[in-house]
Every structure is written in C-alpha cells, then in structure tokens.
Amino acid sequence: MQKVLLKNAKLVLENKLINGSILIFENKIEKIFTDNDNLSEFTFDEVIDLEGKYLGPAFIDVHTHGADGADAMDGSEEALRKISAYLVKEGTANFLATTLTSTKEILKDVLKVVANLQDKDIEGANIFGVHMEGPYFAIEYKGAQNDKYMKPAGIKELEEYLSVKDGLVKLFSISPHNQENLEAIKFLADRGVVVSVGHSGASYEAVMKAVDYGLSHATHTYNGMKGFTHREPGVVGAVFNSDNIMAEIIFDKIHVHPEAVRTLIRVKGIDKVVCVTDSMSATGLAEGQYKLGELDVNVKDGQARLTSNNALAGSVLRMDMAFKNLIELGYSITDAFKMTSTNAAKEFKLNTGIVKEGKDADLVILDKDYKVCMTMVKGKIKFTNL
Length: 386
Prior knowledge:
Family: Belongs to the metallo-dependent hydrolases superfamily. NagA family.
Binding site for Zn(2+): 133, 199, 220
Helix content: 25-40%
Enzyme class: hydrolase
Radius of gyration: 20 Å
Shape: globular
GO molecular function, one term: N-acetylglucosamine-6-phosphate deacetylase activity
CATH topology of the largest domain: TIM Barrel
InterPro entries: Amidohydro-rel (IPR006680), GlcNAc_6-P_deAcase (IPR003764), Metal-dep_hydrolase_composite (IPR011059), Metal_Hydrolase (IPR032466)
C-alpha cells in the first residue's frame, strides 16, 4: 500500500481549523501533522500539495434517489454505479441508495441489486446501505410517493426485506399513525435499523409515542409531514422537542426557507441536523421531463415537480451546494461539515466523518469558494480537478 501525503492544507478538524498535512496509509488517516512538525523524517510514495485549500471529511448523503439520469429504483448495477460516479464529484464519499414506495417484489429486487454493491470499491462514492422510503405512509402526506402502493406495515413483509442481506437496510422511513406501524418501528429498531418519521400526518403525541418504540430520525423535516401550530404541534413539533430525533433537512432554498433551516438548527442544535439532497435522476442534467419511480416529473428553474399536481418531487440539489448554503447562512466551516458529514457518520456508526487519525480516509478538498477540487474514498482518489 502506498503512503500518500496531502500537505499544505487547512485541515477542518471536529471543532477547529489548523494548517497542516495528513498521511494516508491502508485506506486510513495514518497521521496528522501540524506546520510545526518536521516532515523530512518521513518517507512518502506520493506527495500532493493542496496549496492552502480546505481538507475536510467527505460528505455523507443518507437520502438520495439518483443523479445523472439514473435512479436507485431502476434496479440495475449500472444505475447505482452511475449515481456513485456522479455523487463523488460533489464531494460525497458515502451514501444510502434510497427507494420509493412500490410493490414488495420490486423493492426486494432493488435491495438485491444494492446488496451486490454495498461497501464495494466502485467508481465513485461508497454505497453503505439502503434507505427504504415507504411504503408505510399516510396518503394525505404522500408528496411524490405513489399512493397506490401505500399500506399499513406488516412484520412478515419487513422480515423479507431485512432477510435480503444482513445490515443492508440502514434507514427506514415510516408514518407512525397506526398501531401496525408502531410495532414495525419497534421491530426495525430492535434489529439495528434507524427508523425515521416521514410522509406523516401523525399527531404530536403519536410521534412522541413512536420515539418510545425506537423512532430516532426525521425524513426531510418540514416536508411531507404535519406542520407546527400552537394548538397542534404536529410531526414538526415532535421533531423539535425530542432529543432522540436526528433531523434531515433539504437545504436547496426551495423545499425550506433558509430562515426555517436556521430555526431547525437553533432548536435542535448543530449535532442533531443532517443535510440530505433527496436528489432525483435529473440531478446534474438539463431541465426537462424525467421520472421519479413511476411518476412523471418536470424540472425547471432548479425545481423538480410532479407534472400531475405540481408537488415537489425530490430535488436536484448537490451536497456541495447544501454545504455552501450553510456557510451563506452564517455557519462556520466546522459546523457545516458536522451537518453534512460528521453527524450522519456518528448516527450510522461509520468510521468516518471526522478528520482524525484512525478514521477512514474519506476526504474532500475545497477551494476558497468551497468548490470541490478532490474527493477521496477509503484512501483512493475518486475525483480530482486539482
């Protein structure tokens, strides 16, 4: 294995910024050097001068359906590889292939395809598992999900999904509006799956009860859920008030007003917010007509909307843009990395998300304008325009 030195960087550590260099060996961050260390004592196989650029933990996207014309629901390795190759260009090193509400047969087929590529060294970003978004949702909050497949949860069906491959399903979005779904939440949480409230009109009390059953995440907070009012705090109120819930946010300035993003971060705290893209196949492509699963979508002016009712249908957001939007909202670069990488890594127990010795070398290099210059996945350069 080669010893690679990334030198002369602004290193974004968990709570501070330092000038230094890092040594990569055997897919890990072997050593962090400050500018005071004497590098002449060491030998390296390759030295890359970053010329003062930022070096931080590569982004993690736990909610992405697709990009570059490909969708996880295409059910092919080719589609997943295409998504992987695109996401790495935006600084993402790890992602969850996200499904849509569909038939049991189609969902199982998609799971089997993802299982073949999970944690494999492929073209770009690593697929560390699956986020199952549906089918146990509330029809009145269906958003861009196909309501003809929505139904109450069933333990037998869940067993079939989980039996495709142990540890494949990492995140499961569900609406806790009935007892069957509450039992499903407990079943999933007991098996190590992170369970998320999404596409739900459940009451505040129902969501808080679901937390007792093991719910610990919120799918695209504010979107596809009962909002907050002073007489019915709703799903959003439960997300605000429960310290057990990690809150996703789509920060594209379309799904959520920037000041509502600030409100979420202020209420939850920096460590309880995870930026996601909810990106669809049109991401990275021209405006026009696309598909989200079986549904027709029109992409115009940076917005993806269903042609049937004009509802938002995922996004064409990139993680690097979400990161920049956080910076523009006034958050520090260390806090921006927490919400785009560190928090998700901790939630899903990944050995990454922090620039620290012993962590996987999943790294992103950004210039002074926060443009992605290089992405490293497990110590391998998967994208560069240095």
